[in-house]
Amino acid sequence: MTAEHVTDLATSAADGSDPYLWLEDVEGEEALAWVRARNAEVADTLEAAPAFAGTEAAIREVLDSDAKIPEVSKIGEHYYNFWRDAGHERGLWRRTTLASYRSDAPDWETVLDLDALAAEEGESWVWHGASVLRPTPTQLAAGEPWRHALVELSPGGSDADVTREFDLVDKRFVEPDDGGFHRPRAKGSLGWVDADTVYVFTDFGEGTLTPAGYPRIVKTWRRGTPLADAVPVYEGTDEDMYISAWRSHTPGFERDFVHRSKAFYSDELYLAEHAGTPEQRLTRIDVPDSAEVGVRREWLLVELREDWAAGGRTYRGGSLLATSFDAFLAGERDLTVLFEPTPSTSLAGATWTRHHLVLNVLEDVKNRLHVLTPPVAVDGGHAASGTAWTRTALDGLPPLGTVAVGAVDPVETDDLWLVTTDYLTPTTLSLLPLGAGPGEAGAPEELKSNPAFFDAQDMTVAQHFAVSDDGTRVPYFVVGRSDLVAGTGSAPTLLYGYGGFEISLTPSYSGTLGRGWLAHGGAYVVANIRGGGEYGPAWHQAALKANRHRAFEDFAAVARDLVARGITTHEHLGMEGRSNGGLLAGNMLTQYPDLFAAVIVGVPLLDMRRYTKLLAGASWAAEYGDPDDPDQWEFIRTFSPYHLFDADRTYPPVLFTTSTKDDRVHPGHARKLAAAMLAAGKDVSYYENIEGGHGGAANNAQAAHMAAIHYRFLAERLA
């Protein structure tokens, strides 16, 4: 494309024209020809560099390593794992026993071989997970096995997938002709009600999807009947985002729920009694739409995003509250505060075991664990009046690392999976028995740990705080060789950020990053900017819609602070962001080009005028605003990189990456801005993977190739 095709994109947003609209035709012949030409350019430049093959091989070795931790989920007496390596590109679903898992060489039994399935069916299947029906106590007492599974598979990695029933005993799919459940490809899912009934929320035909392309209707579906005969349970409106339903199978507390997602951060939860029958009754859980609700045994948990006045007092946004589920539905508002945020703390998660609730608290982006034990229920299922939750802190956690916990089996035990990691310490998986009573936690048993994929002996991690334009302190982590982190002013530095959807960026070990970047003398920085969840809902809400600029100002403040501290210079500083972080990267490119010597924009949102019309974009209006509202477009246009691009301005070299199969964030975003910049003669590299979905890669080979492109680009531009 030549310079005469360059158009004022800001003007095009106003008059409705768009010279690159043709690139939104995802698999159109002309658009894919353009993609292939761009990929060929990357093959002739970045991929042709002498160091590229070595970097790709080193990263592939990490991804394919047999020494990685095989993460497991307890299903009955077995521990299941999904595994990919060099010999199993698409992966194995396999199982073992706990005794075998404890050994150095577990004896794995293959349950489903995705490579064999893909070859047999001629489909590039990508694993999306599985859900297994818990047998009833009566069935377990009779010796019945865990048999019924629903397996989700995606062709090529797209969000749209299929659900197929799988028999865990016979290790085979239960075909529709044999009465098996099979949901055709769409965005949606199935969920077990009982062995012969599922909830189904999917594409039922015209008018059954929301504007974002997600299910608008949920039904019950009986085994042996056509999907067309499924019985409606709940139907949302044309303005909703996602409708779903599920059953809680906790023995003695079986309940059904319908979930109505109206938008991000706006939900309704209904208790569904006699779902799908003439006696059906839906009772809404009367909490703020912005709150997150959890129900476990006799308890209702409410995590607030905003302040809430109830029962004669006001509870702060970011708090976690508990009460009796039955009493709450009866109108009582006796709420117990389990967590209340401070200026330096937020709730990262809450995990139930059989007798406890484990709170994971972030304190200046460092994890702290607290074990809470609820009061014992008395007759009628309620706790005795005046009894309180007990609280015990779990000590001995890494000072600058991440700690994650998960229940091994919350119905049967108080055991926890404990995962610890940081930027330089390989991840460790331990088994932590809590015991039934308060303060009875035993010592963690280390089960597995990842190998050290790179030499970190002379490296260090530091946490600093930058000051944003409005005076807000913004934390960030710096990782690299000790002399570089201490400040020499010459380190090639990669600055990474996200800043959206209340997602926190916490320290984690990456052999890919270590081999591809740190081992070659690069420094790595993670900025915990507003829009994320590092300091709870308020940290996120500070950068919503008209305040989106705060996230960009925070990131720019970190970039400047790195230079001020002598860690790097602007000539050696690059940045990367993906998805919402791709929007961040696009704004760094167009609004702060002088701060960076290289920018990587991955699977991004960039055309904020049309984002709500592209794939799942309509579901994100609560985050960014509605561009079809003239008043909101006035602030959205200030962070729409596609329209901020100025052909006469100087920009740093940029690498755009995306996936043809990404059915969440449309590849047209990356294609169009790349095309506009190329037409203006800018330094642009563009790579689009044909598979991979929103993750960008469908297997380890593709992931290694994509990562090697990233690191080669940075190495050449930041040297």
Helix content: 10-25%
**Main beta sheet:** 8 strands, mixed
Low-confidence blocks of residues? 1-7, 378-382
Mean pLDDT, all residues: 93
Oligomer description: single chain
Shape: globular
Task: Tell me the strand order in the biggest sheet.
Answer: 32-33-35-34-36-37-38-39
Spatial gap, N to C terminus = 30 Å
Radius of gyration from the alpha-carbon trace, in angstroms: 26 Å
For this structure, what is the CATH homologous superfamily of the domain at 3-60 and 453-718?
A: Alpha/Beta hydrolase fold, catalytic domain
Give the percentage of residues in beta strands: 25-35%
Instruction: Please report the total strand number as a whole number.
Output: 39
- CATH architecture field of the domain at 3-60 and 453-718: 3-Layer(aba) Sandwich
Based on secondary structure, the structural category is alpha+beta
CATH topology of the domain at 3-60 and 453-718: Rossmann fold
Please count the helical segments: 17
Topology overview:
Layout: H1 9-15, H2 29-44, H3 52-64, E1 73-75, E2 78-85, E3 88-96, H4 98-101, E4 109-113, H5 114-121, E5 125-132, H6 137-141, E6 148-155, E7 161-167, E8 172-173, E9 182-186, E10 189-194, E11 197-201, E12 217-222, E13 231-235, E14 242-248, E15 255-263, E16 266-273, E17 281-284, E18 292-296, E19 299-303, E20 308-310, E21 313-315, E22 320-324, H7 325-329, E23 336-339, E24 345-352, E25 357-363, E26 367-373, E27 390-394, E28 402-407, E29 415-421, E30 428-433, E31 445-449, E32 459-467, E33 473-481, H8 482-487, E34 493-496, H9 511-516, E35 523-527, H10 537-541, H11 549-564, E36 573-578, H12 580-591, E37 598-602, H13 621-624, H14 630-636, H15 641-644, E38 654-659, H16 668-679, E39 684-689, H17 700-718
Parallel strand pairs: 34-35, 34-36, 36-37, 37-38, 38-39
Antiparallel strand pairs: 1-2, 2-3, 3-4, 5-6, 6-7, 7-8, 7-9, 10-11, 11-12, 12-13, 14-15, 15-16, 16-17, 18-19, 19-22, 20-21, 22-23, 24-25, 25-26, 26-27, 28-29, 29-30, 30-31, 32-33, 33-35
Domain Peptidase S9 prolyl oligopeptidase catalytic: 518-718
Keywords: Hydrolase, Protease, Serine protease
GO biological process, one term: proteolysis
